[in-house]
Amino acid sequence: MIEFAEITGLAPVDQSPKRYLWTDAFAVCNFLELFCRTGENRYQKLALQLVDQVHTVLGRHREDDGRTGWISGLDEQTGKLHPTKGGMRIGKKLNERRSSDRYDEQLEWDRDGQYYHYLTKWMHALSRVSQVTGDITYGKWAIELAKTVHNRFIYISPVDGRKYMYWKMSIDLSRPLVPSMGQHDPLDGFITYNELQMSATGKRSADLQAEIVDMTGICRGQNWATDDPLGIGGLLYDAYRLAQMIDCGYLEQSDLLEDLLKSSLTGLQSFIKSESLSLPAEYRLAFREIGLCIGMHGVERLQGLLEKTSRLCNIYPGLSEYLAMLLQYSPLTELIENFWFEPQRRRAASWIEHGDINMVMLATSLLPEGFLQV
């Protein structure tokens, strides 16, 4: 994490910062957990510096854009008080596609804009900062972000009158760049909004009920199963977050919890059959595999939660059976982590090309509590 801080311009701050929203959300949680484990203030300072840099860089227009200032359109002073009001840019290398440009699926991966599933990760990171520091400002920013992006990403289909979500929006949230819906985006939204609502209870005004109702409707009838390791890891991570909220009495979504565990199990069985873990490093994407590891760490902690309380057992009697089946895949975690620990594997182009995200997510897998906690 110290190396990450140095190479991305976080500390020392004598170079132009290189910020990317997904990676930085994980990094904030990592620094917070290092602070909680060691008591060393330098880690909390790095977490807060990173939040400030992300807002200053990704909450504003790009240097190669004709527009300037906060992407929310707020003036300088108001924008600093509400840095998430306009959402957050992804941080891609290329500027967003102009409305007059032809859509190119491959090129779109390298273009800027706003991703909903990145934004929910940042909401979670801000919520964690608020919990660790006791400063409710970060929680307020997370809620402002949730309300802003929900209003822009959700739309009503003229075909069936149902609400759906865009996958990718323009930097100023004025138009969709990729109109299709991400498979797990509604799930991320539902669980993250509930996390923010639960954390805000008794501390500040945070009415996300209308947004939660929207997400509940969009989630209804969705198929969560995937054989993508990052997607499976996300399902398991969401399952653990959901279980924590059920355990403390905030939610009673046992049907959804069962659905997530069942879909994860189906995905793991399919992933193993693909034999992709037998391929050399050049043909593998570390951050996607490590995402699965983080999710498996969530399963282990869900098992620990089950052993400590009877509430989950009472609400969901079949939970222990599903956990037993999922825990059979625990050896995958050590297998993947050890593979990418090897220095020669980290010399592969597939690692170097995504070096920042790989190193940060590997750090998360080694110390997952900071990211997995709600």
Output the keywords:
18 helices, mainly alpha, 374 residues, 3% strand, three-stranded antiparallel beta sheet
Structure report:
There is one protein chain. The chain has 374 residues and is mainly alpha-helical. It has a domain at 223-374. Helices cover 60% and strands 3% of the residues. It has 18 helices and 5 strands. It has helices at residues 2-7, 21-38, 41-58, 76-81, 105-108, 116-133, 136-153, 185-200, 209-219, 229-247, 254-274, 286-308, 311-315, 319-327, 331-341, 349-352, 355-366, 369-372, and strands at residues 114-115, 154-156, 163-165, 168-169, 176-178. Strands 1-4-5 form a 3-stranded antiparallel beta sheet. Strands 2-3 form a two-stranded antiparallel sheet. A hairpin with a 6-residue loop joins strand 2 and strand 3 (163-165). Helix 6 packs antiparallel against helix 7 (136-153) and helix 6 packs parallel to helix 8 (185-200). The longest helix has 23 residues, at 286-308. The protein is globular. The two termini are 22 Å apart. The model has no long low-confidence stretch (mean pLDDT 95).
